Amino acid sequence: MSGDWLTVTRGDAPLVVSIPHAGTLIPAELEPRLVSPWLARKDADWWMERLYDFAGELGATVVRTGVSRTVIDVNRDPSGASLYPGQATTGLCPTDTFDGEPLYLAGQEPNEAEIATRRARFFDPYHGALRDELDRLRGLHGKVVLYDAHSIRSRAPRLFDGELPQFNVGTNSGGSCAPALTAAVEAACDATGLPRVTNGRFKGGWITRHYGQPEHGVHAVQMELACRGYIDEPPALTLETWPTPYHPPRAAPLRAALTDVLKACLAFAQA
User: What angle do CA 161, 156, 127 make, to 5 degrees?
Assistant: First the structure.
């Protein structure tokens, strides 16, 4: 795999958009150890880079990894500690899918040495880029918003009951940003009339929790979208049915709402 897996698109507005789970790249040497390449890509946050392709027009900086979360999940605690103790979740180098299906052939799971190698190769550079951009923009503005962009299918019974709201805002239970930013993001979501929850099943991953330090001028918020807002979701996920293509007409209202969300983030940072 070449070194072009990490993309940083710089802007000078006080907003960084992180896209940590849309990647689908898997090193060629890893594929023979997997149950299937399709299964390894099943839980990607599909088409996030397209859904948010307007962010640069707002002056935001976008940091995105092209590497599949199966290789390494850059939104997990590198210590291996669970972000949601007692609940089903996946780890730094996942060994199963959201549905509990094994990703690796028997005996082919990564050991601690391999996990450390993957961390050095992919995790550390991603977070180095995030930190560099946050520091650069803090130098320009004093206050910056880190917006962590995610999506997931509307139903994942192993992870949560029923159908997920369209907008799932996470602020580490209020610890990763000022209340005014939470309120502004909530207002932009609620204006759509679509369901929204704050700090429900998704309270923010390691990125939100690690970088969100309001007392030091970095305010972090995670947005977990139910992907029905921009693609058709099939009743069953199979090699033939998933992923479905990006659906521009379906996505248009959601993109308008997300534009308002990012503008609210900018207004907060610039106030």
Answer: 115
